[in-house]
Design a protein that fits this description.
Belongs to the class-III pyridoxal-phosphate-dependent aminotransferase family. Keywords: Aminotransferase, Pyridoxal phosphate, Transferase. One of its GO terms (molecular function) is transaminase activity. InterPro entries: Aminotrans_3, Aminotrans_3_PPA_site, PyrdxlP-dep_Trfase, PyrdxlP-dep_Trfase_major, PyrdxlP-dep_Trfase_small. By secondary structure, the protein is an alpha/beta fold. The protein is built from 15 helices and 16 strands. It has helices at about 5-15, 20-25, 40-55, 100-110, 120-130, 150-165, 180-185, 215-235, 260-270, 295, 325-330, 345-360, 360-380, 410-425, 450-465; strands at about 70-75, 75-80, 85, 145, 170-175, 200-205, 240-245, 275-280, 305, 315-320, 385-390, 395-405, 410, 425, 430, 435-440. The chain has a 7-stranded mixed sheet with strand order 4-10-9-8-7-5-6, with helices on both faces. Strands 11, 12, 13, 15 and 16 form a 5-stranded antiparallel sheet that branches. Strands 1-2-3-14 form a 4-stranded mixed sheet. Helix 9 links the parallel strand 7 and strand 8 (about 275-280).
Length: about 475
């Protein structure tokens, strides 16, 4: 490693004040600090200097020592030196990096036709019919709309809700993330303390099963939503929608209890609003027991939004909406997306769905998830810094605390663990309001051996703290 201050490092320090870098680290504490480069080799410093010159400062790198990735296969990423990294973070490629069935489907379709939805094409209808059949509630009788990203899907869902309700109020949990469009960023408080929320956006506390009595969470949350609905009304507005990711991923990963959302949906509908289930992270079998996260809660959404894993890395997303909800929107407004639902996107989505079913990926998530749960809980019994282990399937949050009795968050130790694992070539992230929760969210084809490697390396890092 080069420990001298090079010219690129000086250029990088000139790119922004230390105060602004500290603010960035506060928003993404497992990220790279561009003001601290001395521990990096000269080639990495030159790359980062070039990156800062060419890309907006809103782009962030992971880890104190960033990883230069050049290739991926299954649950592994490879750097430019040929080293493998166990990917325990990227849910986008739900059936594995460079999955040959998706690659083949995209390649064949791209060499045949790539056009939009204004021409008659059978595959988009076949896929819509196929995907709708995976829902176990009345939403399976819904209609589909296609976008390119989850942000677009949540944006569109909210526009539909606002048109349907004739109101603009939106309620989310306190650290929710639902997108980066102008509209969705206005109800994504996890974007940072300086990110402005909309005037009729309100937040409610996340269902923190670590600090609240689980049996009381659902009714408490419903009561808090009711209070926020009244607050919106007092300020001259009204409720359009409550939107939630049923894993409450950005809030710190709260997979249980599963009786939280049904009472909330009841309160929302009484106020004339819609319940939107954001399945971008919790859908496509992530729980191991259900294809869709909201089904674990026994709630029927008015709109379901889909994203990230839908095309295993190809930019395809969309939503499912009850026909009566979207009828007025369809009459009053045009909606067309040049790339949403194009021929290649549908090929990627269909191939991904086929792999999920044909290769019994949900069963794998449940089986390997049980191994991870057992191993993580064993580590919690061994190390006092682990306050709580929560999750299901292949999505876990491990909360790091300074004192178990006080349950106070420990961002510094969480950061050390994330970067310690990176040094041992295992990639995870952190989440929660204080980023004190280790976020473990691998591709759904993660195997038992992969789980063992993750647990072994985590044990090693914890022992060295």
């Amino acid at each position: 490693m080069n420990t001298t201050t090079s010219q690129p490092a000086a250029q990088i320090e000139a790119a922004g004040s230390s105060k602004s870098h500290d603010a960035l680290r506060g928003d993404m504490p497992n990220g790279f600090d561009p003001a601290s480069l001395d521990h990096l080799d000269a080639g990495t410093q030159r790359h980062i200097a070039r990156r800062l010159r060419l890309l907006s400062p809103s782009y962030r790198l992971f880890y104190a020592e960033p990883v230069k990735i050049v290739r991926g296969e299954k649950v592994y990423l490879y750097d430019d030196q040929g080293n493998d990294y166990l990917d325990a973070y990227n849910n986008v490629v739900c059936v594995g990096h460079a999955n040959p069935r998706i690659v083949d489907a995209v390649t064949r379709q791209l060499s045949t036709l790539c056009t939009h939805t204004r021409y008659m094409q059978e595959p988009i209808l076949d896929y819509a019919e196929d995907l709708l059949s995976t829902f176990n509630t009345s939403i399976r009788a819904g209609q589909m709309m296609f976008t390119c990203t989850g942000s677009e899907a949540n944006d569109l869902a909210t526009r539909i809700a606002m048109q349907y309700a004739g109101k603009t109020g939106v309620i989310v949990t306190s650290e929710a993330y639902h997108g980066n469009s102008h509209l969705t960023s206005s109800f994504s408080p996890s974007l940072g303390r300086r990110a402005l929320l909309g005037p009729y956006v309100r937040t409610v506390p996340a269902p923190d099963s670590y600090r609240m009595t689980p049996s009381e969470i659902g009714q408490r949350m419903a009561a808090q939503v009711a209070l926020q609905i009244e607050d919106i009304r007092r300020h001259g507005g009204g409720l359009a929608a409550f939107i939630a990711d049923s894993f409450f991923s950005s809030d710190g990963v709260f997979a249980h209890p599963t009786d939280v959302l049904a009472p909330v949906a009841e309160v929302v509908r009484r106020a004339g609003g819609l319940f939107i289930a954001d399945e971008v992270q919790s859908g496509f079998g992530r729980s191991g027991t259900h294809m869709w996260g909201h089904e674990r809660h026994g709630v029927v959404p008015d709109i379901v939004t889909l994203g990230k894993p839908m095309g295993n890395g190809y930019p395809v997303a969309g939503l499912v909406v009850r026909p009566e909800v979207v009828a007025g929107f369809g009459q009053d407004m045009r909606y067309f997306n040049t790339f949403g639902g194009n021929s290649v996107a549908i090929a990627a989505a269909q191939a991904t769905l086929d792999v999920l079913r044909d290769e019994h990926v949900l069963d794998n998530a449940q089986r390997v998830g049980a191994i991870l749960a057992e191993g993580l809980n064993a580590l919690a019994r061994k190390y006092e810094c682990i306050g709580d282990v929560r999750g299901t399937g292949l999505y876990f949050g491990v909360e790091i605390v300074r004192d178990r009795a006080k349950k106070d968050t420990d961002i510094a130790t969480a950061l050390k663990i994330v970067n310690g694992l990176r040094q041992r070539r295992v990639l995870i992230s952190a989440t929660g309001p204080d980023a004190s929760v280790l976020k473990i969210r691998p591709p759904l084809v993660f195997g038992a051996n992969d789980a063992d490697r993750l647990l072994t390396e985590l044990d090693t890092v914890l022992a060295a703290l």
